[in-house]
Amino acid sequence: MDSRPNEPLIQIDKVTVAFGNRVHALDDVTLSVPRGSVTGLVGESGSGKTTLCRVLVALQRATSGKVSFAGQPLSDLLARDTLGYRRRVQMLLQDAAASLSPRMAVGKLLAEPLRIHRLPMAEHWPRVLKAFERLGLSRELLEKYPHQLSGGQARRVAIARALSLQPELIIADEPTAGLDLSIRGELLNLMLELKKEYGLTYLIVSHDLNVIRRVTDHTAVMYLGQIVEEAATSDLFRRPRHPYTAALLSARSVIDPARRQRRIILEGEIPSPINPPSGCRFHTRCPMVRDRCRIEAPPLVDDGRGSFRCHFPLTENAAEISPQTLPAHATGTVLAS
Amino acid sequence: MIGAGDPLVSIRGLTVEATGARGPVHMLRGMDIDIAPGRIVGVVGESGSGKSTLAAAIIGILPSNVTKVGGEIRFGGIDLLTLGEDGKRSLRGDRIAMIFQDPMTVLNPVFKVGTQLVDVVKRKKPGTSRQAAMKEAEAMLQRVGISEPAARLACYPHQLSGGMRQRVMIAMALLTNPQLILADEPTTALDATVEAQIVELFRDLQRETSSSVLFISHHLGLLSEFCDDAIVVYGGLVMETGPITQLIGNPRHPYTAALLACEIDEGDSGEPLRTIPGAPPSPSAPLAGCAFAPRCTLVTDACRAAPVPMKDLGGGVSVRCIRV
Predict the structure, then answer these.
(1) What is the pLDDT of residue A5?
(2) A333 has a pLDDT exceeding 80
(3) B264 contacts A214? CB cut-off 8 A
(4) Where would I find the beta strands (DSSP E) of chain A?
(5) What does DSSP assign to residue A2?
(6) In three state form, how does the secondary structure of chain B look?
(7) Is B274 in contact with A185 (Cβ distance < 8 A)?
């Protein structure tokens, strides 16, 4: 493969996904995922994370815009060899147990992708077994059915199944939701080790900002079909520029009371994409909204350290969002609404 | 009636045993817990530690394969375990309410939200007119942070978002003005921003009502934000209990410390995450010594020899560890 080292594995340019004429699930999304990186995708339910993943696994066609994979347009790759593309991009679904057929034993579940992709069993099966054991799963599990697995085991089986095809990109939707803390740690450590061993690139979708902070290199924050901020994870957490990012960061749980920030409680919920707000899409919930935000949609600004969509980005001094940087009403309680 | 200073709930030696395919399953192995009036008490532990069984035992909805329940659960002086079904029914949804992880298990999909809330009000106060009950429901929705409450009353549950359904369920629990609210992982399925809103709601409730809350979670970090006290459970036993600030600032049990170490709210990308090697004890095997001994980094022979009793360290802190 002619992959240059710094070439992005995925390049998404101004992608829009519209359902009918009214619902824009994705609107002008631009994102680059470097090969070998771990990119995090965060945002509330309804922000478009899943639609973006569906575009990448070729379950949803972009209405407009361009998606390239390893330097080639996605549409060309799919036209030439859809199955071949799907082999290179594997997705781990949030409900791992439900993604495994309840009627197949684990061994058969692992063999199925090899059969679908017409890979020679004799050659590949030993490798699958090796991956299976590498994931800390004992061979006795091959005879078990999905309902006999624990949550952590089901997730490992799903990972083994994805790895058996030697993909280049793994998209993981909420890989640790609902797991015990210790098991969450084990699974994430394992995923990062596998990344090194297999030369993988990850796109991780998660609500858990503490997970995103620990495992990703880059983070893109989505709101109502748009990426509102994107930066190196450490920069994003140290210095969020979009007020929505700041609110999300303040919502993560912090044990040490001394380091706990005042929570910026966003009022209400994400608006419907059928009738998105005028101007900046976040203006209805933004604690720092001004008149211009209601009228004029902010363009995507790239300042070399990342990109954001905001007329009045938070400044350097507001590194740790403190109540002083926000108007008094912004940190009110939910009961006030 | 209970006197001032008495706990609202006092649980002593609570054991719950069920029949499994391979013999008896020990879901709870003898729990002692006190819940003072007006306190928010967090219960934390891994899957299978007995958190949900504890709540189910208090409200009397243990699964049907449970064969033996021992010990006592005193609620305002009444022993819930010896209480008949009629007695339990009059407590449930009146003095004890429960909030579940999935609101759709509670909300009936074919009735409007308003109808379901009115039913709760009328059950509590049978003489109330439908109109007055509707007004009360509307005020409660407003109080739990639902905008346009009048319009929401006319909605079916599926027309509401997950966060809103969770608020409706909380409103339903509060309408009965209970003395005790049992909350079983009510924010696990919600977005982080909505979780923050619900946590804020519990904080406000703590100030405004005199209800005690037992809040179950597998996430100590979340509990630390709004609980007064915490109970760490493991293998069907209480390992440590005390004021949450004590528990987090100065964990005395190695399991509490290990749970805290698994929190990842500090540190940057690249460092491996901390884990607790091994797995929780099987509920079908008897325990010889300390339940946590096989996974404990500080284990000694004495830990494996005999069951470890709970030790009262004063200041409300009790720990089940031979090292303290």
Answers:
(1) 52
(2) no
(3) yes
(4) 8-19, 23-34, 38-42, 64-69, 72-73, 89-92, 169-173, 201-205, 218-223, 226-232, 301-302, 306-308
(5) -
(6) CCCCCCCCEEEEEEEEEEEECCEEEEEEEEEEEEECCCCEEEEECCCCCCHHHHHHHHHCCCCCCEEEEEEEEEECCEECCCCCHHHHHHHECCCEEEECCCHHHCCCCCCCHHHHHHHHHHHHCCCCCHHHHHHHHHHHHHHCCCCCHHHHHCCCHHHCCHHHHHHHHHHHHHHCCCCEEEEECCCCCCCHHHHHHHHHHHHHHHHHCCCEEEEEECCHHHHCCCCCEEEEEECCEEEEEEEHHHHHHCCCCHHHHHHHHCCCCCCCCCCCCCCCCCCCCCCCCCCCCCCCHHHCCCCCHHHHHCCCCCEEEECCEEECCCCC
(7) yes
In chain B, which residue's Cα lies nearest the Cα of A216?
B269
Q: DSSP letters along A256-273, please?
A: -GGGPPPP----S-PPPT
Tell me the C-alpha distance between A30 and A18, whole Å: 16
B257 touches chain A (CB under 8 A): no
For residue B222, the chain A residues in CB contact (below 8 A) are 253
CA distance A47 to B322: 51
C-alpha–C-alpha distance, residues B19 and A231, integer Å: 54
Mean pLDDT for each consecutive 10-residue tract of chain B (324 residues)? 72 94 91 94 92 94 93 93 90 91 90 96 92 95 88 94 89 92 88 82 82 92 91 96 94 95 77 88 90 95 94 94 92
CB pairs under 8 A between A and B: 124
- Burial class for B75, CB neighbours closer than 10 Å (0-12, 13-18, 19+): buried
Q: Does B126 touch chain A (CB under 8 A)?
A: no
User: Where does the pLDDT of residue A251 fall: very low under 50, low under 70, confident under 90, or very high at 90 and above?
Assistant: confident
The token pair that represents B146 in the structure block = 């639902």
Q: What is the pLDDT of residue A3?
A: 45
Residue A325: pLDDT above 60? no
Structure tokens at A80: 């030439």
User: CB B188 to CB A188 under 8 A?
Assistant: no
For B:282-321, CB contacts with A below 8 A are none
Pairing relationship of beta strands B40-44 and B66-75 according to DSSP bridges: unpaired
Q: What is the pLDDT of residue A321?
A: 46
Residue of A nearest to B193 (CA): A251
pLDDT-based confidence at residue A6 (cuts at 50, 70, 90): low
Q: B201 and A266: CB-CB below 8 Å?
A: no
> Which of B141, B152, B193 to mutate to probe the A interface, most A CBs <10 Å?
B193
Output the CA torsion sign for B166, B169, B175, B176: negative
Asked if B105 has any chain A CB less than 8 Å from its own CB, the reply is: no
ipTM of the complex: 0.82
Judge: B193–A214 Cβ closer than 8 Å, yes or no.
Answer: no
